[in-house]
User: Fold Major facilitator superfamily MFS_1 from Deinococcus proteolyticus.
Amino acid sequence: MSAAPTPPVSRLTSLALLLTATLTIMAGATIAPSLPEMGAHFRNVPQAELLVRLVLTLPALMIALASPLMGSLSDRWGRKPLLVLGMALYVLAGAAGAVIENIWLLLLSRALLGVGVAGILTANTALMADLFDGPARGRILGMQGVFTNVGGALFLVAGGLLAQQNWHAPFLIYLLPLLLLPLVWTQIPNVRPQATPRLQAEATPAALPWGKLWPIYAAGFLTFLLFYQVPTQVPFYLTGRFGASSSVSGGIVALTNVAGVVAGLLFVRLGQRFAAPQLSASAMLAIGAGLVLIGLAGGYAGVVAGVFLLGLGLNYPNFTAWLTRLAPPAVRGRAIGMLSSSVFLGQFLSPLASQPIAAATSPSAMFWLTGIVAVLVGLPFFRVSAD
Assistant:
């Protein structure tokens, strides 16, 4: 039986999906510039240096833990209910940091935020895969990368500016999704895995093809494990080595998002010409080169160049396009949930892996050493099959 053609998707539906995608990067990016001041505020708390970094990365752990369940729920309930519930939890838990003074309550709110993000990310990406097919899917996923990174840059800069008032202020940005909920409610359909003729035609037994998917999960984990040194370590590196203010740190870290826009636009073209594993390998080499540049930088210029290269290497649209091409529609939510789990587990573990290296050597050595690791890890992906 041949698959039925995918019906056209309205521009407002596409816009709602793309704007919703920005919420996932906003979860961490918003408060990154306020970490140094937050660290000073909680300096008398035991292990404050680590706990403050966990404020940024704990949502990633919860996303990693909750995403497989969210994927299964989206396959069973449909995408839209999960998306709306995720947004509601996102607003409540995210904005709570504007008033919380206790580090442990703050960490609890960040954990709940991660559960909300897991629902948003899984449902949003599954909707894009369900509603679009072929080259159109590649384009929407590439534009997802563009919107995500534009939003991330804006939220980082806004977070840096608000952090100059106090470390609580950036948490107010988490109220913004309230403005997006009406568009989501009215324009996004509730798609279930077999709700359209095309998805019914593509339906297969509900089993994940692990043998084909594990390289994608490994690449996602390693990419974000290395990349997330930018928001967790670069602000401290800039403050300690160059005396940078929170707004300067926010602006420099935001360059990863500017580079991500470029990468997303390039993916719209390159994704049709080159195999996904080779694109992942090239991205890992860019991350490695960026980390080495940051570690060897003698001034702002080297850090800026390195951060930009890292942004070019953050190729999440490539992972999702690769995954949704291989995963059967009936288990697509689960497959995307596992990718989210892999990616955000890498985010969470990033400071736990990098901070001991920095303590044992130096922040500069940490960057260039992990850059070498990125190059060595990336090279084998040139030999991975796309199928």
